[in-house]
Amino acid sequence: MSYPEPRYFGETGEPSAVLRPAGHPPEIANERTGGSAHYLATGALTGGDFGLYRWNMGPAPSGPSPHFHRTMTESFFVIDGTVSLYDGTGWRDATAGDFLFVPAGGVHGFRNESGEPASMLILFTPGAPREAYFEGLARIAASGERPSEEEMAAFYAEHDNVWVDD
Length: 166
Prior knowledge:
Layout: E1 28-30, E2 35-41, E3 51-57, E4 67-68, E5 73-80, E6 82-86, E7 91-95, E8 99-102, E9 109-111, E10 118-125, H1 130-143, H2 149-158, E11 162-163
Antiparallel strand pairs: 1-2, 2-3, 3-10, 4-11, 5-8, 5-10, 6-7, 6-9
């Protein structure tokens, strides 16, 4: 494997780094569940290279069932607590420092069923616009609306989520 083709051709570098302070408020906060999402590096910020998010889950059970993506990989790094990760063959309890890589097409899921808060980093490559997916789910949860099966199927298809049985 070799390095990719150069994308910067200047001679001196440039001041283009972006710092996100630790105290930055989350982009999504769910007061009811205690969960939140921090958009650390969106696909728009990284020029489509990757998207990195800190996903905080409250103590109530939460998280998606097994699914896969056709267009992107997804990786999980547990920061705090216990997160159940589905690796395509079964659910595994993961704790701080555990990592799961899922290639495109790989069946996966995650859940916090521990009764305690948990936090992890989620990395998507390439940097798909996942913010619209996260915000759409948050809107649905906050509104109390129940979209039809057809509406939800269209929403999931638009955001490259294909659900499977576990």
